[in-house]
Design goal:
The complex is a heterodimer of chains A (about 425) and B (about 200).
Chain A lengths: L7 E5 L7 H11 L2 E6 L13 E3 L5 H14 L4 E4 L2 H14 L10 H8 L1 H10 L7 E5 L4 H7 L4 E5 L9 E3 L2 H16 L1 H4 L7 E6 L4 E10 L2 E9 L13 E4 L5 H18 L4 E10 L2 E8 L12 E5 L7 E4 H9 L6 E4 L3 E6 L8 E7 L1 H5 L4 E6 L6 E2 L10 E7 L2 H13 L2 E4 L1
Parallel strand pairs in A: 1-2, 1-4, 2-3
Antiparallel strand pairs in A: 5-8, 6-7, 6-8, 9-10, 9-12, 11-17, 12-13, 14-15, 14-16, 17-21, 18-20, 18-22, 19-21
Helix pairs in contact in A: 1-10, 2-3, 3-4, 4-5, 5-9, 6-7
Chain B lengths: L7 E5 L4 E6 L4 E8 L2 H4 L3 H7 L6 E8 L1 E6 L5 H17 L10 H26 L4 E9 L2 E8 L7 H16 L5 E4 L17
Parallel strand pairs in B: 7-8
Antiparallel strand pairs in B: 1-2, 2-5, 3-4, 4-5, 6-7
Helix pairs in contact in B: 2-3, 4-5
């Protein structure tokens, strides 16, 4: 229970996020006063007006006004967004409530650039950060004509969607026209079209060969601290780019890791990010590190659960174990985070792929107990519910579940994740 | 009882909490919660689980065929689970009750709290969650800790933790301040109609 003098955190949680439990429990462990702001009203909001708030996430001006009214009665000491959209809203709220810079946050322009893949690429190019060459195109353009002009292999990419939804590789003209048609259908779906102008355009960019990694970091006063570097041992060469396994620490040579960290720092500087978590996807090949995406938010899905950190504050010899969410909240509230290291053990997560090629309605998941029994596996979390329609990539963006493992080496962790996955059977119909 | 006939399924909730579903009942007289080895004295199964080396067991909740274990160590559940499974089999095979009945004095205090919490659930909590097709069942009150189970739209809902901590627990703090904590024993993975389903990466 928070103390009466506890600082108040405004946590921006979309109702569709996977991250609710991790952030709410982290706030409880830290003993902070918590206000959860969401895009749909909680049925308890009228009885708990300090702890629950509804903000119009779709209209920033209205949302920030609602937050400002709330803050007059309940002063806010920090704001945390958990996804691309709420990271932008957090920046807008901080800017409004923190005229003297007393709240930690990003400039709104930086948060917007991190969310918009085109704006991001323009800034990266202007600052000389290695990134795929790109062109912006409109859905109204003639795909056959475009197919003659673009360079192959290329990647078609929506401007706003997450989880690699809608991202497709094309190796020739026929492949491009096919991918264009699929992307157009995705961008016309009501939930996507609702974001307006960004859903009417897309990027065509060079396919960058090489190994892909994910970098989890924390930015303080514009300086990036790498919290973890994840290998992605399954090649992400297309035609779709559904994530599967993340394992940390990376097995890349130290020199490559340094190049990746430097590239990510250059991207942070180019976008103007000043504070808070970042999650970046990068590639590395014989020409060095390449920035593929950088988001001003922590890692998505349930994946944050694989990260544990140890801290030693001041002269206190007692080591404290923190979750990623605790690190993010502590940073937002200006709580000390001096000596922070990821735990010594290797850790990994598998985002369970949608089974088969056509998905289907989930009827049953078999073998969960057997998968949990695999040595080094810590948990198998099935997040899809019975009756849920599983949609494969590139149209889909919801993993049916996650497998977590921890062990002495990245190799052992990766093997455990694969073995556990082999024991699962998704029955669809 | 032959220990080999006892089937146990472990379902980790997170790195700290894990449910063990046992094919035989462990405690049929309601729910018992233990938050220290001292409280476990007299209950052979609870004593044995608290004594597992390196697990740093912090809490046990036993009800019917289900036991929920909360640990403080970073040891993974597959390693700790083997010792817990052995303790369960040993306790059941002995023939003695694995869990002792709740002490009478505690029952009286908890019964009073139970009635007040049940009244709050009936008058305030359930009408609120019903607006999202949900329901909340009061399972028991043990040592002033409320155990509840969510159903309907709350079971598996992406915002269930917000409902639990920012809604139900906050209301209990206001209306029944003697309550020391709230434990959700819902199997959220079995929810078939959550009001909010997680969708983004």
């Amino acid at each position: 229970m928070p103390r009466p003098s506890s600082p108040r955190l405004l946590l921006l949680l979309p109702t569709t996020t996977y991250r609710t439990a991790a952030f709410v429990e982290a706030a409880r462990r830290l003993g902070v006063a918590l206000t959860v702001a969401s895009d749909e009203p909680s049925t308890f909001e009228s009885s708990q007006p300090a702890g629950l708030l509804t903000l119009d996430f779709a209209h920033l001006d209205r949302a920030v006004e609602q937050a400002a009214v709330f803050a007059r009665e309940h002063p806010i000491a920090g704001v945390v967004g958990v996804d691309d959209d709420t990271a932008v809203l957090a920046a807008v709220i901080v800017e409004r409530l923190s005229a003297a810079g007393e709240l930690k946050g990003n400039p709104v322009t930086a948060a917007l650039a991190a969310r918009d893949k085109h704006r991001q690429r323009v800034l990266l190019a202007e600052h000389g950060v290695p990134a795929p060459a790109f062109e912006l195109h409109a859905l109204e353009e003639d795909p056959a004509g475009l197919a003659h002009r673009v360079r192959y292999p290329c990647v078609l990419k929506p401007l706003r969607l997450s989880a690699s939804r809608g991202v497709m590789r094309a190796d020739d003209g026929a492949g491009f026209v096919s991918a264009f048609g699929r992307l157009k259908a995705i961008l016309k779906q009501p939930d996507v079209a609702a974001c307006g102008e960004p859903a009417r355009h897309f990027l065509v960019e060079d396919f960058v060969p090489g190994v892909e990694v994910a970098l989890e970091g924390l930015v303080a006063d514009g300086c990036l601290r790498v919290l973890a570097l994840f290998d992605k041992p399954d090649p992400l060469d297309g035609p779709f780019f559904e994530e599967t396994i993340y394992v940390t620490p990376s097995r890349l040579p130290e020199r490559a890791e340094r190049a990746i960290a430097a590239c990510a720092q250059a991207a942070v500087t180019a976008l103007g990010i000043r504070e808070g978590p970042v999650h970046a996807e990068l590639r590395h090949n014989d020409r060095g590190a390449w920035l593929i995406e950088l988001a001003a938010r922590p890692i998505g899905g349930r994946c944050g659960a694989v990260l544990r950190f140890e801290t030693r504050e001041g002269g206190n010899a007692k080591r404290e174990t923190l979750s990623l969410e605790e690190v993010v909240i502590r940073h937002a509230l200006g709580m000390p985070l001096t000596a922070l290291e990821r735990e010594q053990r290797a850790a990994g997560v598998m985002m369970i792929p949608v089974p088969g090629t056509g998905g289907g309605v989930l009827r049953e998941v078999r073998g969960v107990a057997e998968a949990r029994a695999v040595p080094l596996v810590e948990d198998v979390a099935i997040t899809a519910h019975r009756g849920q329609t599983l949609v494969p990539w590139p149209e889909g963006s919801r993993y049916p579940g996650f497998i977590f493992a921890r062990g002495e080496t990245p190799e052992a962790v990766e093997a455990a994740l694969r073995m556990a996955h082999r024991r699962l059977q998704f029955v669809t119909g | 009882m032959n220990p080999d006939e006892i089937r146990i399924t472990a379902e980790p909730i997170d790195t700290a909490r894990c449910k063990f579903l046992v094919s035989q009942p462990l405690h049929t007289a309601g729910v018992r919660r233990f938050s220290s080895p001292e409280e476990a004295k007299g209950s052979p199964l609870a004593e044995a689980i608290f004594a597992i080396p390196g697990a740093a067991v912090a809490e046990l909740i036993v009800s019917g065929n289900l036991i929920t274990v909360v640990k403080g160590s970073a040891t993974p559940w597959p390693a700790v689970g083997k010792s817990i499974g052995a303790a369960i089999r040993s306790a059941l095979a002995s023939g003695a009750p694995p869990i002792a009945p709740k002490p009478a004095a505690a029952v009286a205090d908890d019964d009073t709290l139970y009635d007040r919490v049940a009244g709050l659930f009936d008058s305030e909590v359930n009408p609120m969650v019903a607006r999202h097709g949900g329901r909340v069942e009061l399972i028991d009150v043990q040592d002033a800790v409320v155990m509840l189970r969510m159903g309907g739209g709350c079971q598996g809902c992406g915002m269930a933790d917000v409902t639990l901590r920012q809604g139900i627990e906050a209301m209990l703090q206001q209306h029944v301040p003697e309550v020391k904590g709230v434990v959700d024993i819902t199997d959220h993975s079995a929810g078939t109609d959550p009001y909010f389903a997680a969708a983004k990466k």
